[in-house]
Amino acid sequence: MIDESDFRPRQLDAVRSAAKWLVTVSAALVGALAAGLPLSGISQLSWNSWRIYVALGAVLIVLSAGLAVIRSASAVLAHEWLTLAGLRGNATGFVDERVHAVPLVRRIAQRVAFSAQEIYGHEATGIGDLHRRLRQAHEAILDPATPDAERAAARERSAALREVARATVEAANYYATMALFRRMRRWLLAAVPAVVIGVAAFAYAANPPKAAEPVEVRIVNPTPTPAATGAPPR
Known about the structure:
Layout: H1 10-35, H2 50-77, H3 84-88, H4 101-114, H5 116-119, H6 127-142, H7 148-206, H8 226-229
Helix pairs in contact: 1-2, 1-7, 2-7, 4-7, 6-7
Keywords: Membrane, Transmembrane, Transmembrane helix
Transmembrane segments: 21-40, 52-70, 187-206
């Protein structure tokens, strides 16, 4: 059997590192924006004021944008590993069936098939044929009735097919990770302005302008009165 831990080409690690970097930088920017918000003003808002509803709506927008980015990033960093069975169509889904995962598997399988001559064309006519040949070689090795000469040939055939299967699965998972990474970037591009707008709306709504304090006004007569000059009355 093929060890899935070996299916870690450098390209996948580079994509996942880029995803981590983008999420980290975005989180740092959002944290810097949120740290400068004065939060004391929201406790002074009345439920009869429109400001408190705008502030709560802004918080909801920021949280929704953050959760969307986290979900898309987690799909890049920890998606289910795609196998030959999944490419063949025996898998029930990829990453999450609720986000239309099966069509993604079909697109990845079509892209791998487009490069068949470079990946597996010298051993099989298709992904299904490659999977079938690999299964037949394993069955011949494990069958006690297989003659020793045929078992040795089956081992050689299995080794060659496993190398081809390894290259096929690596290519499929690279294409899948890139597709998920592009989706994460789209969510990130949409989330950043949403967060900025949400933070600005919260800052405006949660901190109403203070009422102006009354100013003491004194009126001074510039002309001195007789009493002020000390002149005796006549």
